Amino acid sequence: MKIVVCAKQVPDTTEVKLDPKTGTLIRDGVPSIINPDDKAGIEAALQLKEKCPGSTVTVLSMGPAQADVALREALAMGCDEAILVTDRAFGGADTWATSSTIAAALKKIDYDVIITGRQAIDGDTAQVGPQIAEHLGLPQVSYAENVEIDGDCLKVQRQFEDRYHIIKVKMPCVITALAELAEPRYMTVAGIVDAYDSKEVKVWGLEDLKDTVDEANIGLKGSPTRVKQSFTKQPKAAGTVLKDLTPDEAVDAIVAKLKEKYII
Amino acid sequence: MSKNVFVIAEQRDGKIMKVSYELIGKARELANDLGQDVVAVLMGSGVEAVAGDLAKAGADKVIVVDDPMLAEYVTEPYAKATTAVIKANDPEIVLFGASSIGRDLAPRVSARIHTGLTADCTKLEIDPETKLLNMTRPAFGGNIMATILCADHRPQMATVRPGVMQALESCDKVGEVEKFAVEFTPADMNVEICEVVKTDKKSVDITEAKILVSGGRGLGSAEGFAQLKDLADVLGGEVAASRAAVDSGWIEKDRQVGQTGKTVRPDLYVACGISGAIQHAAGMEESEFIVAINKEESAPIFGICDLGIVGDLNKIVPKLTEALKKVD
Predict the structure, then answer these.
(1) For chain B, which end, N or C, has fewer CB atoms within 10 Å of the first or last residue's CB respectively?
(2) Closest Cα partner for A179 from A126, A143, A151, A214?
């Protein structure tokens, strides 16, 4: 089984802090990580490979040159091949352009399953996976909590808020992974050595995708949506914070306030 | 010329989801600014009977696609139907609820018709000069806000989370109902649903609660939630939780508030042992009145609450419950 996992290197947005003086984001020094949903996808792929000997796992990422580190981490976890899709021309892409570019890269490789994460922790759109599936004309099953092999099909447990479906989908197909899909394994020391020694990260730029990509669909120019402006949220007007109260005093303060606001 | 604001309504088992009414409420405002109509699109099997509810919620017209293929949500039949309706009507704007269905359907449709899609919008406004839809959403994990435009492609598409917009008061409006037929073939059902397993009916919708008592990492254990349940009961509210508590296995996921959980706007939100990280705040900061109890003075929650108590929740919460019992 040939499995391709699409992964993104993202800033760890849970570690981002606001500068208390200016109220703006401190972007420097924020660690870069493999997007959590994607990492679960990588782990799920590696587990499928273990169940189906002879399989290969290729990890693919669209990003700047530094995304090489994320791909090496995926190789160290056990992926067989890595492809970095990078070019200045791809920069500034919205989800349409990003998915178009990644689909163009995928058209150049053989796959049975494409796994993406449900959403990235910086964009939070959950759009690229389904859009890749559309560009490639493949069935998609998103919000995957569990994936099993069933002959030439996959059996996927698809999560909804109030239920789940067990879906049987014929390969080739696209699955989008929830973080709950699989607990990612740690890299081994031998894995890290291999990642830099015997395994390689192929680098594909616009030239390499010339026969599969439509240049009208890439980068900032190819993006139907554009950012008009971005801003930090206005902090909510500070309320009252009381400290050094005894529990009884605290309770009195809360009850008084709730009465004042007609909540009780 | 593209015209009208469309809302792709969501139904499950023939019941229209609340987010659809909320979207119609917002669509009404946008349509008024554009001098155009609100059209709701209802897809399902055996759902014609409830189409009228969408008109009562403010839609001028309801387009119904009723077909057995649409009985349970599967991507391709729904994508085909949505695309067909959009192509036949050329709407200016199309709104979807950002549920696990909308977030699967909207990107597929937007790619099929080659237009822009903006996810999880918290604000939608028509620019008075350009008449473009200004779509504002959290970005960078919720740390900043961004306003997005889709200037040259139509329709302008957006998804909105449940609980963010407000439904209008139900009225006696009777809108036009149009039956729309889609030519399905067996090949459109390109996956097989082997099983549909509904989660326990008793599962709670915290977005409906007027009062929420919410617990975070500071509770320390699943047992810690018992005291929050007592407090919620005496207030007539529900228990909610931060991601940390859910990930620790102390409480069910459907009670999670935040960026990857639910957005809530109760009259009262009591945050106990919750630090108040951006991702949590994103889900509850629009609450009418926020009370926070945390033993860490530097917890970010104290920056967004209306009343903050630096103290031990294990001592304060039970006493608060007792005191409130006496008030009743």
Answers:
(1) N
(2) A143
**A149-154 mean pLDDT:** 96
B285, B263 Cβ separation under 8 angstroms: no
Domain A2-217 has CATH 3.40.50.300: no
pLDDT tens readout for residues B176-221: 999 999 999 999 999 999 999 998 666 678 988 999 999 999 999 9
Put simply, the answer to whether A126 touches B279 (Cβ < 8 Å) is no
For range A16-28, the mean pLDDT: 70
The domains located in chain B, with CATH, are 5-188 (3.40.50.620), 206-327 (3.40.50.1220)
Dmax over Cα atoms in chain B, in whole Å? Answer: 65
Cβ of A140 and B277 within 8 Å?
no
pLDDT exceeds cutoff 70 at B53: yes
Instruction: Say yes or no: A99 contacts chain B, CB-CB below 8 A.
Output: yes
Which contiguous run of DSSP H or E holds residue B95?
strand B93-97
Residue A11 Cα distances to A43, A208, B140, B173, angstroms:
20, 27, 8, 49
What's the rounded mean pLDDT across residues B251-267?
91
User: Domain boundaries in chain A?
Assistant: 2-217
Q: pLDDT averaged over chain A?
A: 93
Which chain A residues touch B118 with a CB distance below 8 Å?
225
Residue of B117, B227, B254, B267 for testing the chain A interface, max A β-carbons within 10 Å: B117
